[in-house]
Amino acid sequence: GQNIDQPTEMTATEGAIVQINCTYQTSGFNGLFWYQQHAGEAPTFLSYNVLDGLEEKGRFSSFLSRSKGYSYLLLKELQMKDSASYLCAVLDSNYQLIWGAGTKLIIKP
Amino acid sequence: ETGVTQTPRHLVMGMTNKKSLKCEQHLGHNAMYWYKQSAKKPLELMFVYSLEERVENNSVPSRFSPECPNSSHLFLHLHTLQPEDSALYLCASSQDWAGTPSYEQYFGPGTRLTVT
To answer: CB–CB of A45 and B104 under 8 A?
Structure first.
């Protein structure tokens, strides 16, 4: 079966750095997405990785290793507004999106 | 209005009721999706429409009936639901259907459905 694993919940301190991991086992791979979802709101696109390596976008970076079936989202200089759930999703060989259950990130002052 | 809108935002219905959820996208996209989001579970894809034709139906019970009258509007008709159907129902759109790579989905705010 296809599976996406990510931690259920993480806690970090304002101003610090946090890394949210995502591992996947899917039938094929055509890219990996990270979405952010604030409580009661719609998920919004953060990043897309299809090649190995690190993609940096401001305070957020996303890393991919296809050989390890692994990705992480790195958030720097954490702000209170970063408190949200972070969803990992993989496009499989049929270009179907397989979603993880999301990681709830709690930022403390 | 911009982006993807959904109405109503909250809905409480009894198991014998019939109601409809509405989604509208103002992005000129060709594909629209219905998802079910339950607490601590992955997003479940329910239906996909591409150019107003249903292209995906992931074994969803018949008590959920989608309708896509045009590329900007998507409905989810509900009847004789069960308490376990209580969840957040999200609508999304993308430029093209999931059959193409590198696509990004734009989500609406969702309808919080409670079945009593």
So the answer is: yes
Which among B40, B102, B110 has the least Cβ separation from residue A42? Answer: B110
Interface contact A2, partner B, CB < 8 A: no
User: A41 in contact with B at a CB cutoff of 8 Å?
Assistant: yes
CB count within 10 Å of CB A75 equals 21
Q: Tally the residues of chain B.
A: 116
And the tokens for B110? 């969702």
In chain B, what residues touch A42 (CB-CB under 8 Å)? 4, 90, 107-110
Report CA torsion sign: B68, B87, A3, A78.
positive
CA distances from B98 to A15, A59, B78, B82, B88 (A): 37, 29, 25, 30, 22
B34-78 residue pLDDT tens? 999 998 899 999 999 988 888 877 789 999 999 999 999 999 999
Whose tokens are 């109601």? That residue is B19
Residues A105 and A18 sit within 8 Å (Cβ to Cβ): yes
Give me the mean pLDDT over the A13-36 stretch: 96
Partner-chain contact B107 A91, CB within 8 Å = no
Buried/exposed code over B46-64 (b: 16+ C-beta within 10 A; e: otherwise): bbbbbeeeeebeeebeeeb
Distance from CA of A102 to the nearest CA of B (A): 7
Structure tokens at B10: 């909250």
Nearest to A99 by CA among A32, A52, A7: A32
